[in-house]
Amino acid sequence: MKRIKYLITLLFLLIFANLPLLWADAPVTAGVKAAVTFIAALEWLIVFFTGYQRRKTPGGRLGGLKKGIDTIHITGTAAAIEAVLLILWLTLTDHSIALILTAVGVPLAALGLLMISGMFRLVIHGRQVKISRFALLIMFWWVPVVNLFVIRSFYKNARREFMIESAKEELDTSREASTVCATKYPLLLVHGIFFRDWQLVNYWGRVPAELERNGAKVFYGKQQSSLAVAESAVEVKSAIERVIAETGAEKVNIIAHSKGGLDSRYAISCLGMDKYVATLTTINTPHKGCDMVDYLLKKVPGSIVNIIEKRYNRFFSKLGDKTPDFMAGVRDLSAVRAKSYDTEMPDSPQVSYRSIMTVMKNSRSAGFPLNIGYLLIKKLNGANDGLVWEDSAKHGERFRLVTSDKKRGISHGDAIDLMRENIEGFDVREFYVGLVSELREEGF
Prior knowledge:
Layout: H1 2-17, H2 19-22, H3 30-50, H4 60-92, H5 97-125, H6 131-140, H7 146-174, E1 187-190, H8 207-213, E2 218-220, H9 229-247, E3 252-257, H10 259-270, E4 277-283, H11 291-299, H12 302-318, H13 326-331, H14 335-338, H15 341-344, E5 352-358, H16 370-380, E6 398-402, H17 428-441
Parallel strand pairs: 1-2, 1-3, 3-4, 4-5, 5-6
Helix pairs in contact: 1-3, 1-4, 1-5, 3-5, 4-5, 4-7, 6-7, 9-10
């Protein structure tokens, strides 16, 4: 039935695109012409304004995305058939220039507008379209042949996104009642350096919503973007106490990324928070520091560092930081500075520590500046995520190295879904669901 519906719609789109030629010498009555014209035009208008659907799909964003995909598919099929028919028509018969222009121009306009409507839906509803693809679309939408490759790129990208997100929806629905992330203690997510916890543009991407959908109670560290570890730790301490007071829970489970792991360790070991923390999971945290920081501090002139520091502090003051300190945060990431961390903030026996690290496979695994960082750290230390080298992230009772079996690795930003990108071979949302469900299974 679905195939028949598809073929009927395809037929009427082709009829609509060729109406001037079909009715020029067709031996049919005016009534038949009017009826067929009306149906073909109505079918074209429906596809143009509402989109074509090969099968029933969910509403909302995914439904709109699927309509765009199906509209481009059926329009592309119609265009391919139309091209073959036109070639045969032009080859086998003689025609005037005016008729040829009509035979080419009308289908081009009719099918071209449908293709535009499908692309519009992909652009509006897609979440995995990179800026580079938008740039190509803007530059080449009018260039014949080239624009077909651009459209094909959008189509393949959107189709992959729909398949992944649909499967994700089905998975979440199937386990909705099990609340696999409903841990005994609430989760406190602690961000890294140079960022803040804005909920409209969440540092952790799609992860918090996924965890909450599966039963987790999620809170945020809300520390300033750049301070010394000891100062950020005071703000993490306040966040822990706030969560305890708000929820009535005895403890929290902390998941911390990058420098946030050092801030959390200091709050636990030096500020008495070990009695309120059940587990600390650090993700891509430089426990042994970043040799790249020491290298850059030696190479970059002090005058340039001062300019960067002043501009950074001024900018983040406007974004909400009360006392941002660019250099204090950077210096505490130094490998030289990190040599004393294990002595300064020894692990508490009351807390379960575990660490996770992801690595890039090449400089193409991420954009600037992580691609440059990857090359530099690879030369200095070896495997890394663009900011932190592998061994620096090892800490606690358990260490887990997360890799991808695809050509692309997993960068420092990918580990927190910074770009909201569906990475082949690594589902970041499911990664965190697995992480938190393990905490639940272990009684935390």
